[in-house]
Design a protein that fits this description.
The mean pLDDT is 85. This protein is mainly beta. It folds into 3 domains: 62 residues, SH3 type barrels; 65 residues, Nucleic acid-binding proteins (OB fold (Dihydrolipoamide Acetyltransferase, E2P), Beta Barrel); 57 residues, Nucleic acid-binding proteins (OB fold (Dihydrolipoamide Acetyltransferase, E2P)), CATH 2.40.50.140. It starts with a strand and ends with a strand. Helices cover 2% and strands 56% of the residues.
Length: 194
Amino acid sequence: MALLEYNEIKERKIIVYENQPCEVMESHVARTQQRKPQNQVKLRSLTTGRTFTTSFQGSDKAEEADITKRDVTFLYKNKSEFWFVDPKDLKNRFKLEEKLLGDASKFLKDNNTVTALVYDDGDEEQIISVKVPIKMEFLVKDAPPSIKGNSANSGNKPVTLENGTVISAPLFINIGDNIVVNTENGEYVERAQK
């Protein structure tokens, strides 16, 4: 595991802070005239989901978390439990809570392979996050009807995707259309190519 200098602790890095893996959400290195430089960071604990702020002084170092990536297949959702399986060992089924998945839970599709981030603290391995592809294709399950002659306007309407997620899409999108969605911001990208 690498040690990061105070100014190397930047967005999207995963560090060990107070014995738990934390993702750096924001960072700002402040250099005032009379004080030593410091890095003010906003961290999100990947085990509890709690966000908090702290600062690292010029002499501080942070340990980069030992994270590995592993493919897992999403099976189904039961209330707030999301069930996955290891594609190499179909008997290895496990559940993850919705709070651990965060926004990724809105874009999971049955039998879709996603990337699990696994943290190894030396004693045991633990899945701390699931990453879905940035762009994913979905079938539109429900959409209000289009008003004739209104498709040229740049208006949007709410549409329901095959997994129940509701997003805003252009007026010309109808039930049965396949669309591409940006999973980072939940926005419509384009109609999928047939």
